[in-house]
Amino acid sequence: MSIKKVPTGYEVRFRVNGRGSREHRKVFPTKTECERFQRYTIAQFETQADVKPWLEKPKDMRRLSELVELWDDTHGHFLKDSTRRKSKLLMIAHELGDPAGSSLTRLDYTRWRTQRSKSGLTPKTLNNDLGYLSSMFNVLIKAEEIHYPNPLADIDNIKVPERELSYLTNEQIIELLEEAKRSENKHVYLITKISLSTGARWGEAEGLTRQRVRDNKVHFTDTKSGRNRSVPITSELYDEIQEHAKKAKGNQIFTGSITSFRRALKRTSIDLPKGQAAHVLRHTFASHFMMNGGNILTLQKVLGHSDIKMTMRYSHLSPDFLEEATRLNPLSHLTP
């Protein structure tokens, strides 16, 4: 290093790494500033010298299918629908061309989603696919299995029109029960009655065991929301279930009967929107509950909804709601 006086101040000249390295040359007003500049420059060089690019972690090139397996090992197998979810994720990975997760872009995904939409898939299915794959990335990031951002984080769901929630009239309920009673499957009639009486999903009613029917209540466990719930039933229905249970060979009261129910429903005059076969029983319970003056918070507990927004879909059927709609509309206050 050399510092010498020049007409404009002091000039400092030095190389930080010996002969052959870059020479630094700068003029300052004072000699002290020259020394500070030299110390600072040398410190910066030594800091950067500690960084060894060849030791940096290489880009993560694991493919989506590999990430699915990793997700399944660390998280997926704990889910109730683990087999179905893993199969769905592997299908998505395959259709996307199984790229490296770190190379997947929003544009890649949205273009693929558009093609799926054009092939006839519903917005709900497409939103589910996005949710499954985005959740997988989030889980792996949280577990520190991957160290790059979720590539799907900023993709919005497709807006889904609110579905019509059909429910059965009293006449349709009678018709359906009569047809269910004539079914070749001895379980269909009673499962239908349980669903109509409790708002249970078909699978929940179908899965009842002897222990879950007691004290004039049915107890649903391992439900979709993950919450257990108990719903009172009439003594007549309770006795009917107990009598039916005596004929069961094991602990399970019923066997799989959804196909027989669909056949019975098809024999009726009831016309329902697509995808609302057995689920119409749950909608029917909720709709009649509100029309008969039920409380929306009670309905939420009976149905087992974790979010009150789901239950609010039935609030418009409340007699108070309907009465206010006719009493408070602008035409009702016009004077002749």
Percent in helix: 40-55%
How much beta, percentage-wise? 5-15%
Average the pLDDT over all residues and give the rounded result.
87
- Structural class determined from secondary elements: mainly alpha
- Can you tell me the CATH superfamily of the largest domain? Intergrase catalytic core
Which residues sit in consecutive blocks of at least 5 with pLDDT less than 50? none
Number of strands: 6
Figure out the total of helices.
14
Radius of gyration: 34 Å
Give the name of the CATH architecture of the largest domain: Orthogonal Bundle
Span from first to last CA? 103 Å
Overall shape: elongated
Give the total of domains: 3
Features:
about 325 residues, mainly alpha, hpI Integrase, Chain A, three-stranded antiparallel beta sheet, 14 helices, 6 strands, about 45% helix, elongated
Structural notes for this entry:
With 336 residues, the chain is mainly alpha-helical. It folds into three domains: 2-50; 64-142; 170-324, Orthogonal Bundle (hpI Integrase, Chain A), CATH 1.10.443. The protein contains 14 helices and six strands. A hairpin with a 2-residue loop joins strand 4 (213-214) and strand 5. Helix 2 packs antiparallel against helix 3 and helix 2 (64-74) crosses helix 5. The N and C termini lie far apart (103 Å). The model has no long low-confidence stretch (mean pLDDT 87).
Give a short summary of the structure.
By secondary structure, the protein is mainly alpha-helical. Helix content is 47%, strand content 8%.
